[in-house]
Write a structure and sequence with these properties.
The protein is an alpha/beta fold. It has four domains: 1-144, Response regulator (Rossmann fold, 3-Layer(aba) Sandwich); 150-241, PAS domain (Beta-Lactamase, 2-Layer Sandwich); 245-321, Orthogonal Bundle (Helix Hairpins); 322-475, Histidine kinase-like ATPase, C-terminal domain (Heat Shock Protein 90). It is 43% helix and 22% strand. It has helices spanning 13-26, 38-47, 64-74, 89-97, 110-146, 165-171, 175-178, 183-186, 190-193, 243-278, 286-318, 330-344, 368-384, 443-453; strands spanning 4-9, 30-35, 52-56, 80-84, 102-105, 150-155, 160-163, 199-200, 211-217, 220-231, 234-241, 326-328, 351-356, 364-366, 390-399, 402-408, 457-462, 468-475. Strands 6, 7, 8, 9, 10 and 11 form a six-stranded mixed beta sheet that branches. A hairpin with a 4-residue loop joins strand 6 and strand 7. The radius of gyration is 42 Å and the shape is elongated. The structure holds adenosine-5'-triphosphate and magnesium ion. Magnesium ion binds at residues 377, 380-381, 439, 443. Residues 377, 380-381, 439, 443 line the site of magnesium ion.
């Protein structure tokens, strides 16, 4: 233990010399200061954090009891021993009630005095250590409050004893729902997952590799990278939320699967047609040759559109895409696109593609190329998802300083639950339903993003089996730009 500092206060100068000498003879590692008045003592006490104070109870001016009160105030943790005169039993009791650590009666029994003082010093130093540890613990707790990783402690009985704010934020489970409850009960799915979490017996880096495991909470699947460290009375677990990374990983997988499938289909058609055209052993008539060449042209077109869509979606994501903002003559643009689409789908005799628009319309502000792409995607869908044919109608109309571009079909329709999701990237409604109809699931995602960037919105109404209506609304070039416009009709 470090050197202990003791202050002795007594108006009896003789005692003030004798006592320290006696103490120094019997005790190791003490440093003793003396004061002959309470006032002087108080000044020292304020300046030095003593390990113990010894004071006479009866002194002129401020007496020992008054000094004790001041010490309680200035240094509440410092043990104070009072020296009482012979027979001053009442005073001694009063002193103890006032918070004195002990009293020593005159004539002083040196052995008792030393023993009591040593105990007082020990208590004080232990107090200090406890305080230091408490502060350290508090600091650790504060650190835990602020780390981004979820941290929780499961004690030997399997009960959750600590649950930091990050754990709350990641899982959505507040501490009151978890603390004091068995982990198996408080954390749904823990009973299945807990056993797979790697637990190290020594803390420190590299002691265990965290594992990424799924934990289902409130119907939400969370992927957590989690590991634990075992202590005498439990395990501390730390985890990190990898759900988004996981979803991205899955999306990437889906993307690769969809795209390779989407690329293979037109490639196979092109390859097959080219092979047939190259064969010398069979005579092809003119119309057969033309139809094979048309397949090659159409499928190459499809390939380049897929590549273009992937690139465009990527540019939209990274914010690298810049749209022009010019006055666009929508009537002309829409008429052109409808003509193009009619010849593209010339072989779909079961589809009638119609265009309805007023005699004149004001221009919209936007990007002509991108608007063309939006319309192509919508008409392409309308035809593609009308496997039994029907009418596909493109309508242009003006509505409260906005232009409405409507693409209506009588095809498969979209189940209500899917109507928000079809605008998502790579999202395709149940592939079984649209069997035989390929696609990357990028078309509507691109539409929504492009229209959003032209300060417009796109929405859908449809009922399963009864066709769909897609509406694109765009600001007219003359209209003042609205600031707080909702960005899209459908939040996907
Ligand atoms: N007019 C429509 N009628 C019925 N379903 C539709 C219609 N338009 C889109 N869908 C559904 O929404 C999904 C997403 O459409 P989107 O245009 O984004 O992708 P895609 O057509 O599958 O692929 P891509 O457009 O890239 O070729 C489609 O797979 C389809 O299920
Ligand atoms: Mg499409």
């Amino acid at each position: 233990m470090s050197t202990a500092r003791v202050l002795i206060v007594d108006d009896d100068v003789g005692l003030l010399e004798a006592l320290p000498e006696a103490l120094l003879l019997r005790m190791d590692g003490v440093e003793i200061d003396t004061s002959d008045t309470a006032a002087d003592a108080l000044e020292r006490i304020r300046a030095v954090d003593y390990d113990a104070i010894v004071t006479d109870i009866k002194m002129p001016g401020m007496d020992g009891l008054a000094l004790l009160r001041e010490i309680e105030h200035a240094r509440p943790g410092t043990p104070t021993l009072l020296i009482t005169g012979h027979g001053e039993h009442d005073l001694a009791v009063q002193a103890l009630r006032g918070g004195a650590y002990d009293f020593v009666a005159k004539p002083i029994d040196r052995d008792y005095f030393v023993a009591s003082l040593e105990r007082a010093i020990q208590v004080r130093q232990l107090d200090r250590q406890v305080e230091k540890q408490r502060l350290a613990l508090e600091l650790h707790a504060r650190v835990l409050e602020h780390v981004d990783d979820g941290v929780f402690l499961v004690d030997g009985e399997g009960v959750v004893q600590h649950w930091n704010p990050a754990a709350h934020a990641i899982t959505g489970l507040p501490p009151e729902a978890v603390l004091g409850r068995p982990a198996d009960e408080a954390l749904p799915g823990w009973s299945a997952v807990g056993a797979s979490v790697p637990v190290a017996s020594v803390p420190g880096p590299g002691s265990t590799e965290a594992r990424t495991l799924p934990l289902e909470i409130d119907g939400r699947e969370l992927w957590l990278s989690i590991s634990g460290v075992a202590f005498d009375d439990g395990v501390v677990y730390a985890f990190r939320n990898l759900t988004e990374e996981r979803a991205l990983e899955e999306l990437k997988g889906e993307f690769v699967a969809t795209v390779s499938h989407e690329l293979r289909t037109p490639l196979a058609a092109i390859y097959g047609s080219a092979q047939t055209l190259l064969r010398e052993d069979i005579e092809l008539d003119e119309s057969r040759r033309a139809s094979l060449l048309r397949v090659i042209a159409q499928e190459s077109e499809r390939l380049s559109r897929i590549a273009g869509d992937i690139l465009l979606a990527n540019n939209l994501d990274s914010g690298r895409l810049h749209l022009a903002s010019t006055k666009v003559d929508v009537q002309q643009l829409v008429a052109e696109v409808v003509d193009e689409m009619r010849s593209l789908f010339a072989d779909r005799e079961d589809i009638s593609l119609e265009l309805n628009m007023p005699a004149s319309l004001p221009p919209v502000s936007g990007d002509a190329d991108k608007l063309r792409q939006v319309l192509i995607n919508l008409v392409d869908n309308a035809v593609k998802y009308s496997p039994n044919g029907g009418r596909v109608e493109v309508v242009l109309e003006e509505n409260e300083s906005r232009l409405r571009l409507i693409v209506r079909d009588e095809g498969l329709g979209i189940p209500h639950g899917e109507q928000q999701r079809i605008f998502g990237k790579f999202y395709r409604v149940d592939p079984q339903q649209s069997r035989g109809v390929g696609g990357t699931g990028l078309g509507l995602y691109i539409c929504r993003e492009l229209v959003r960037r032209m300060k417009g919105r796109v929405s859908v109404t449809s009922s399963d089996g009864k066709g769909s209506i897609f509406v694109v609304e765009l600001p007219l070039a003359s209209a003042p730009q609205r600031q707080s416009d909702p960005q899209v009709g459908q939040r996907a």
